[in-house]
Amino acid sequence: xxxxxxxxxxxxxxxxxxxxxxxxxxxxxxxxxxxxxxxxxxxxxxxxxxxxxxxxxxxxxxxxxxxxxxxxxxxxxxxxxxxxxxxxxxxxxxxxxxxxxxxxxxxxxxxxxxxxxxxxxxxxxxxxxxxxxxxxxxxxxxxxxxxxxxxxxxxxxxxxxxxxxxxxxxxxxxxxxxxxxxxxxxxxxxxxxxxxxxxxxxxxxxxxxxxxxxxxxxxxxxxxxxxxxxxxxxxxxxxxxxxxxxxxxxxxxxxxxxxxxxxxxxxxxxxxxxxxxxxxxxxxxxxxxxxxxxxxxxxxxxxxxxxxxxxxxxxxxxxxxxxxxxxxxxxxxxxxxxxxxxxxxxxxxxxxxxxxxxxxxxxxxxxxxxxxxxxxxxxxxxxxxxxxxxxxxxxxxxxxxxxxxxxxxxxxxxxxxxxxxxxxxxxxxxxxxxxxxxxxxxxxxxxxxxxxxxxxxxxxxxxxxxxxxxxxxxxxxxxxxxxxxxxxxxxxxxxxxxxxxxxxxxxxxxxxxxxxxxxxxxxxxxxxxxxxxxxxxxxxxxx
Length: 543
Description:
This protein is α/β, with parallel strands linked by helices. The protein is 31% helix and 17% strand. The chain is built from 18 helices and 16 strands. Helix 9 (182-191) links the parallel strand 4 and strand 5. Helix 3 packs antiparallel against helix 10 and helix 6 runs antiparallel to helix 8. It is globular, with a radius of gyration of 22 Å. The protein starts with 9 loop residues before the first strand and ends with a helix.
């Protein structure tokens, strides 16, 4: 097979080498957030870490509204590290790499609530507002076709292909093209002549380059995995992809007949993710196609993978690949520090929200001390919960927040949050109280607190770090609702088109009309504008 130049494809995990944060601080190019066309234009330092939560088409829509306002305020700069989980990846992928250079046309025009008639809601929608249309229906259609054809490869790609068709293809994004900056494309192509001619580059070099967050779940050969299997984040950026750190991990199948221990961790250039090492000097075999933007966005949003790979009972006697297991995407993951003695194990991968829904773990691993989270949770923030007196229960707040403070709620089978504890527990009630106070103003639930990290050996977070943490939490601000024309306010609460507004169901409303997208995007933009002073302070590049 064709080979990459020896060793140049690899950025090692910590092990005997450096941690990801150390690599960033020491100026290593691959884990940087550089989006500029030339090295001379690189931003310096870590900047601010910003996480956009998952949540299906609702997350796509909220991200559109938030980014539109941030961009308008001049707060959308390449000194920022962006993580995008699940539905947020559906927005950040096409927005960052669209061949359409007119960002205003993509995002649509902001309209103040007093002028937001239903006609204005529809007329102000940008071209991206039409993307959440037939995702779920097309997924079922392609699934049925693959089953009928007994095509195992097509089954594994059903979700990725559907997401690409819905969100990427309309923006002129080829589903087999690798993605990155212009400088990265030039460098990789020079080392591999003819192998990477088809490449995407960032449309706007002054904007952040998104890092898509997926979950590394475990060996595909062991599906269904034992309950309480430890998951790891899979970060997929335009320059590099992989899992922070290096460790040997013991996995077991719930079938009870097999187990194995494999090395996990380390980074490779993204386009080579899934490739296999073939020589002792570190050269690797090229994939049939580079790991693409479609692969990254598809993996980051494959929410059913946890259910298919761990919570459903084994289906039939076929073992691996039987039943729904064939739908779980798998990537051959090489841990560079392990060398070549260990076999490269195809590992089941899935939605970043199967572990943690913001990318906060990854931002902490990078060393960020200022983090802003945009959370479009389907759970409304309880205004009556006394977080200082009572532990969180179902319906109080987004389940992913308490887990970060060591109080996982575990509402159901969607996520594995047991190992997410990274902040001292005393910070949780302070954050909740601040969000509740902000909600009461009617200007949106946007709040800032200072928190301290606790040691998390699984994910490589050290204790005692002080983190400036801001949350923008999706709510329905009274002032915004009261400012709407009566017809729009009534429709937002009663019309079938806007059912569930603003918290469109993650799983049942994957298809939204352009007007449904536009209305929620306007709300999210308005909240950013109302809290512009705080967000400008927290998103400013650190000195």
